[in-house]
Amino acid sequence: MYSRWLALGFLVLAVAAGAQPDPMRFSGETAMNWLQAQCDLGPRPPGSATLEQLRGMIESHAQDLGLVCRRQCFEATDPHGGGQLQLCNLVVSCGPDGGDRLWFGAHYDTRPVCDKDPDPGRRDEPLIGANDGASGVAVLLHLMELLAEDPPARGVDLIFFDGEDSGPAGDPQGFCLGSRHLAKTWDSFGSPLAGGNPRALVVLDMVGARGLSIGFEQYSYRYAPELTLAVFDRAFALGLSAFVPEVAAAVYDDHVPFLEAGIPAIDLIDFDYPPWHTTNDTPDQCDPAALAQVGRLAASLAWKRIPGF
Questions:
Q1: Is this prediction's pTM over 0.85?
Q2: 146-163 tens-digit pLDDT
Q3: Cβ atoms of 69 and 147 closer than 8 Å
Q4: What are residue 104's DSSP bridge partners?
């Protein structure tokens, strides 16, 4: 009788152990296909028809997976032209409603101009944005598939920010328009994030480059050190070599407005990327293996909660 119960106990433990989804299922090749699909639309600056096409792609993908994608639309002054832009943040929610929630974010717009291009004659051209824009979105689109298949135990919201890369160089107020709006209004009536208790935000930006190396982004490390160290500890536990325990550049990115609002936030970004804001930011500069490392970390964070977050 004892051996029978012991065998049953081992079976229960085996089932329980197998119930935890494997983050290594995240496919870099699948994410790369999503990156290419975005670039095939062409440049996707704020207010453009191609960005609206991408919105439709994200919304349709969520619907096909049985998830709801909500828009938060608002008007903002065009930093490059002085007119008004219609911007829309998108939120796809996975797992249970309300309660503690983990947020992942990426900007889905691309820069209106390639102002850092080595050829002065091409600096007015719009950016394809394979790494700077499409890489983080590609990770979220594939993560969405995995979370729809194996819903997380607590709520996870995937946020697609508009208007991140719209400002002139040297003008921080022209950047992060969508995240600044959402950070101010996230719990307001009608917001797609209202009613939850955000524990942390993980921003994915420029995460697809060959030879990816992500360190401690300085604003993240200074203002959310516990979250930063916990996320990197998870990366090390998973054996993800792209994550390096060194302080890297300070980047004004979509996490900063949430840090200012008192929400722990980390920016996973490799800012050492020579094609940044040039016509060379194209899919051939990106690597499925890099996307896989970031996606596997994100999947692990979604499925297995970090203590305290």
A1: yes
A2: 999 999 999 999 999 999
A3: no
A4: 158, 202
